[in-house]
Amino acid sequence: xxxLGCQPCGxxxxxxxxxxxxxxxxxxxxxxxxxxxxxxxxxxxxIDGGAVDTCWRERAQWTGDLRMSALALRSLTExxxxxxxALHQIAQSYNPKTALVSGVWPAMQPGEGLPIxxxxxxxxxxxxxxxxxxxxxxxVRQVVQASFDAWQQHYYREGLVQGMPGWYFTDWDYSDxxxxxxxxxxxxxxxVCNAWWSDWCAFMQPELAIHPTVFEQSFxxxxxxxxxxxxxxxxxxxxxxxLNASLAMHHRQDCLVYxxxxxxxxxxxxxxxxxxxxxxxxxxxxxxxxxxxEFAEGFYGSIAQTYGTIYEKTNDEASLAHGWSxxxxxxxxxxxxxxx
Length: 340
Description:
Layout: H1 30-46, E1 61-62, H2 63-76, H3 80-91, E2 104-105, H4 117-130, H5 138-154, E3 156-157, E4 160-161, H6 191-204, H7 212-219, H8 236-244, H9 252-264, H10 267-271, H11 274-284, H12 289-307, H13 328-332
Antiparallel strand pairs: 1-2, 3-4
Helix pairs in contact: 1-12, 2-3, 2-4, 4-6, 6-8, 8-9, 8-11, 11-12
C-alpha cells in the first residue's frame, strides 16, 4: 500500500493594526502599568475589525462587551473605526417590536436575535459616549432615538422602566438568584436597568430620569440596593450603578460603606467580574479619585500579574482575554491616575 504524502502547510496569526496612544498622564506605578499592558493584550486578542466577545473570535459582537471595549479603545488607541464598525453592526439588529437591539449579533438564530434589556441600554450609552451628537452614523442615531421614544411610551410607567422582554443578564453573580437573569426576578423592575435608563436620559431627556425617591422605595434594603423589587439580597451591582446615576442621594454614605465592606471581606471578588468592577471603581470616585484607583489596583493587579490578560468571570475558568474586562483602562488613563 502506497504511503500517503504530506503536504507542508503554514500557519500564522493576524492582528488588527491598533495604533497605541502615548499616555503622558498615567501613573508610574508598576502595578498600573501591568494592568494597562493586560488591557492592551486583551484588545489585541479581541479586536478583529469589530470588538468581539473573547480571544476565540467567534465573530459575534456582544453588545455589553462593546461598551467596555470602546471605553478602553478610546483611552488606549487611535482606532475609533473599530467602535464605528461594531456600533453599526449592532444597530442592524434593532427590532422595532421590542425596541431592543440584539444582545449579540449575528445571533445563533438569525432574524430572532437575543434580547437583553441591559445590553440595549449599553448599546445606546456606548453610542452616546462615543459620539454625543450621534452625527457619525445615521443608522445608529435612528436606533438610539427610536428606541428611546419607544421605551418612554411602552416601558416607562409608575416612575420606573419595566416590562422589557428578554434575558435580564447583569453579571456572573451566583450568590444572587436573580443576577443571571434566568430566574423569576427577570419579570420585575431591575435596578441596573433603571440606573442605566437614567444615564441614557441624561443624554436624551433628563426630566425622564428615575426619581431617587421612587428608586429608593423600589430597591432599598436598609444597607444597600437590591437588584430587583423582589429584594432578594443586597447587590453590589445595583448599589454601584445607583451611585453612578446619582440615584443614591438619600443613602450615598450607606452605599459607599456597603461597597467598602464588600471589598474588605472579598465579597466583591466573589460576586463581581472585571466587567462590573469598573462600575464599582467609578462609584468609589465619590470617596476620592485615589480610593477608586486603589481599588482598581487591588482588584485587577493580581489578575494581570498572573495571566498577562484579564479574564471574564469571577475566576480563571473562563477565557483569559475578554472584551468586557478592559474598561478600567479608561479610569487608569485619566490625569488623576498620577496620584498613585
